Amino acid sequence: MKNTYIFKKCFAYIVMVSILAVSLPATVFANSAQTNWIGTTSTGAIMTDGTCPIVVEKEVLTFDIQEFPKQHYKDIAEYLSYSGKVTAEYTFYNPADCTVSATLVFPFGAVPDYGYLYDTQAETRILNADTEKYDITINGEPVEKKLRHTLTYFGSQFELSKDMALLHDEFMEDDFYYPDMPVTRYTYIPEGVDTETYDAANAAFVLSADAAKTRVLTENQNGGKLLDNAVQLEGWVKSGEFIVNVIGEPLSQMPQWKFYENGACENEIEGSMVLKDMEVTTLKDFALIAYDKNSGVSEADWYNAIIESIKNMEWSNGAISASDFQFDVSDHLMRWYEYVMTLDGGERIVNTVTAPIYPSFDMNYEPTIYEYTYLLSPAKSWKSFGTLDIVVNTPYYMTESGSEGFERTEMGYSCHLTGLPEGELTFTLCSQSEAKAPAFYNNEVQILVIVLGIGVFAAIAVLFIRRKRRN
User: Fold this and answer.
1) What are the 10-residue block averages of pLDDT along the chain, 471 residues in total?
2) What's the pLDDT at 43?
């Protein structure tokens, strides 16, 4: 009787939990359209030579935000009409008694995910349409600037030491990879595989190479597994063509392909892999397969981004885990301005850099909120840093900010700091003084309650069964 009572009590509890979850208010979205848009993170000017004696006496950081960005832009003209920008005005001083020339870089982030444009006539991506809108001046006179690019990943945070290390003046030097390195490309076509019966059929081969001499990148790879002193590289047969790229010295043994019913690669099936083509190229040409000379990206920067992406995918036994490899890295490029300034001993100059500012925004709020991020910590790399004034010219409301202590002004907001703060600069703007928080968390509460209820039910049910067996 006691066990029966426990089970009934448990059942009543799970019913109560279900009723409670159903009774909670739920949010229903009208459609599945994207509601969160990722912007870019900006930061200030950075000295490439850490031993430079130049100091920053003061900086005035001005955000001009008279409009919010759109979710989509139909053409270049509309995209370029967006006016959001940030201007960093530095007063530099050279305390040394000699002339100092310094190379500076100003990273202003990747293209935001609402800023990608496509030229339908040329059938190419438009990557840097906005960069010519902005400029760099010294004492009011424009200076020559170079647009640079480095590899970044979607949503990744800027890290000074990591991202600065990706900037190379020419093709990067590496212990293994170099531009003239041979790459042998073997093109295979699967034949005789019953894909009607085995819709998820997989092809695979085992690789055991000396990684000091050879690296292998297989296009259309979708998985793999570690074996004893080897790796197995796998791909869907329906993907069609398989290209095995042997980087460096040739393989001692050509791939021995096998075919399996599905991605588990357990049960073998009939099939063969036919070598259709073989060509030898250089690593530089291989890296530049998807490169567009009209993209505004230099060959060296594109090559370096590709090599960095390959290095991030290196696996074991010479294998490169290429499931996410792309020849087109245009979606993964951080943009920088690079320029040179020269100060005589005891000279003081005013250097002004203007760049686009693209916020992230969340349309789940009512009305939409827009978050702006500007990294201040890289400025700590300067020998010394004086005062910082931050001005936000905007008709909108600042609903959230860090610990900087913004004050309302006729033009927007401002704050004065006697030095660099500990954290980064972030603030949120909205068309109204308050934004209603999204209610989707109610759905999450319902799910949490149901999961907890099921967990309790399962635990009591197990206890009931065990007691019943004992009896």
Assistant:
1) 39 36 34 59 74 91 96 84 93 94 86 73 68 87 93 80 91 96 98 95 96 96 93 94 96 95 95 97 98 91 97 96 91 90 95 90 92 86 91 96 83 93 89 82 52 57 44 43
2) 74
Cα gap 348→168, rounded to integer Å? 29
Neighbours of 10 (CB within 10 A): 19
Report the sign of the C-alpha dihedral through residues 419, 423, 429, 434, in that order. Answer: negative
The structure tokens listed for 313 are 């995918």
Residue given tokens 């010519």 in the structure block: 132
Decide if 108 contacts 40 (C-beta within 8 A). Answer: yes
Q: Taking the CB of residue 149, how many other CB atoms lie within 10 A of it?
A: 26
Host H or E run for residue 17? helix 2-23
Residue pair 3/460 in contact (Cβ under 8 Å)? The answer is no
| Distant-in-sequence, close-in-space partners of 181: CB < 8 Å, separation ≥ 6 | 247, 248, 282, 283
Cis peptide bond prior to 395, omega within 30° of 0 = no
Q: What's the predicted TM-score (pTM) here?
A: 0.78
Region for residue 109 given its phi and psi (left: phi exceeds 0; alpha: psi -120 to 50; beta: otherwise): left
Residues 6+ apart with CB under 8 A from 419: 385, 386, 387, 388
Query: What are phi and psi for residue 192, nearest 5 degrees?
Result: 70, 20
pLDDT of residue 127: 67
Token output for 177: 């990879």
Helix (H) or strand (E) holding 5: helix 2-23
Tokens of 385: 């840093």
